[in-house]
Design goal:
single chain, alpha+beta, Deoxyribonuclease I, Chain A, 2 domains, 6-stranded mixed sheet, about 15% helix
Length: about 475
């Protein structure tokens, strides 16, 4: 229930707590919210382990790490104004999170954190120091945040949050700690596939990590046992033969087929499989229609599912960075328009029955690039197919998160950048994101807790599929 009175220079929002668990997935099904807020709204919740916040704002969707003006969230961790900051609207607060922090008088990118010390001053830090996770990464009218209580000094069972957006009136939220439901989807080991499933893994293995950090990557791939592997960030000097030789060395002793995007951009994408496959000439070089000299990092391979059903598998790596409607955002849109055209051309030639598209979409601004492929994506398989492609909804094994990228040295916070779409005569039977810190103690004997972070700043995204004939 919302109570939203205006009190002079304050806008107070008092929120009740929930008995259901809060999952940071950008879906907002675990919040009450408001359909059409006329100002910033904040909901708060906490349990013994975490603090959760839900932000809503009026107007068009925004990228909260690329705002036009800095957004401040100040948190009074013990609910007492007599401790913490001693003056201003943030009196009593011990932590300030700044989205799009000011740099040289202008809002910058990312998130910063400042904590109050007993000596009476704010000390700069990183949001990663406080277990900060937020979703979604792309433009939205809503965002949800989680903080790790174990990293918050002197936290109590009652807290207060002050939201300050530019010169607007502050929004204040008070909430108490309550018990919340446990996440029921928790898994402590890597799921195995059913006998008739095909495992697809998409993984951006940072800066050529497939071969540069071969031992760690090999251990992870042997544990995941993918049948189809969509790889991003291979380097120009890493060719099909080198990648194939590495994959052939896995303990399964399979003969892998590899197809890569052309060298020249510095980074390459690849599709690899241990199933029977053949190249797709359409993907030898895909360029942007608005810039024919610019090669897109996309690769394709036609794969037999083992029962004579052909699947077109596509691995992509879209342009990085940028804010909403900025050059990089528009480049991603241009790239997927050309990729969609290339898929349609490949389908016309090879007539696949199934379609798999996966990779690093770099959705840090608009969600349009993903939507261009997803919405009415079945039609790429021909006139007999209608509707949207199926977007996988994988979670970490602990069931709490959906982020696929993490870099504690970056001003940007963990986000979901990697996606897998399927279509045609394919059905998704399972999906997960592998972070080895989620594994049980027994599993960590073969895979160290930090294995995925040693291998790359991206996490492997896995979807198990099966063919379903009409």
């Amino acid at each position: 229930m919302f109570i939203h009175p205006v009190m002079n220079d304050l806008c107070c929002l008092c929120v009740g707590l929930f008995s259901t668990p809060v999952i940071i997935d950008g879906q907002f099904e675990d919040w009450s919210g408001s359909e059409a807020p006329d100002t910033w709204l904040v909901e708060g919740a906490s349990n013994k382990d975490y603090v959760f916040l839900h932000l809503q704002h009026p107007g068009p969707p925004r990228v909260i790490q690329h705002l036009d003006e800095t957004l401040q969230l100040a948190i009074d961790l013990d609910g007492r104004t007599s401790t913490g900051c001693t003056d201003g609207s943030f009196q009593g607060c011990e932590l300030i999170l700044e989205m799009s922090p000011s740099k040289k008088g202008k809002a910058g990118g990312g998130v910063t954190a400042r904590s109050w010390k007993d000596g009476g001053k704010w000390v700069n830090g990183s949001p990663y120091d406080f277990g900060f996770v937020m979703a979604p990464t792309f433009a939205s009218r809503e965002h949800e945040i989680r903080l790790d209580k174990s990293s918050l000094p002197n936290n109590g069972k009652r807290m207060r949050v002050v939201l300050q957006s530019g010169d607007d009136n502050p929004v204040i939220t008070d909430f108490k700690q309550r018990s919340s439901g446990k996440v029921t989807a928790k898994r402590q080991s890597i799921p195995t596939t059913d006998a008739d499933d095909i495992r697809v893994a998409s993984w951006n293995i940072e800066f050529g990590g497939l071969l540069k950090r071969a031992d760690t990557v090999k251990a992870l791939l042997e544990s995941l046992a993918p049948d189809i592997l969509l790889i991003q960030e291979l380097e120009d000097d890493q060719d099909e033969e080198a990648v194939s030789n590495f994959l052939d060395s896995l303990t399964t002793n399979d003969d892998w087929t590899v197809s890569m995007s052309p060298a020249g951009s510095g980074l390459r994408s690849a599709v690899a499989t241990r199933l029977k496959a053949e190249p797709v000439d359409t993907f030898n070089r895909v360029t942007r229609s608005d810039a024919p000299g610019r090669t897109i990092r996309v690769a394709g391979l036609l794969i037999d599912d083992g029962n004579g059903l052909p699947i077109l598998a596509v691995s992509l790596h879209l342009k990085c960075c940028g804010g909403l409607n900025e050059r990089e955002d528009l480049t991603r849109i241009s790239e997927v328009l050309s990729i969609r055209e290339a898929i349609s051309e490949a389908v016309a030639e090879h007539q696949p029955s199934g379609l798999v598209i996966g990779g690093d979409f770099n959705l840090v601004a608009s969600p349009v690039p993903l939507d261009i492929l997803r919405i009415d994506g079945q039609s790429m398989l021909g006139q007999s197919h209608q509707g949207n492609l199926d977007l996988s909804t994988p979670y970490h094994l602990d069931g709490r998160d959906t982020y696929t990228w993490y870099n504690a040295g970056s001003p940007y916070t963990p986000g979901r950048l990697d996606f897998i779409l399927t279509g045609g005569e394919l059905e998704q039977s399972d999906a997960f994101i592998l972070d080895t810190s989620d594994l049980s103690t027994n599993e960590k004997r073969s895979l160290p807790a930090n294995a995925t972070r040693v291998a790359s700043d991206h996490l492997p995204v896995v979807v198990d599929i099966k063919t379903v004939r009409p």
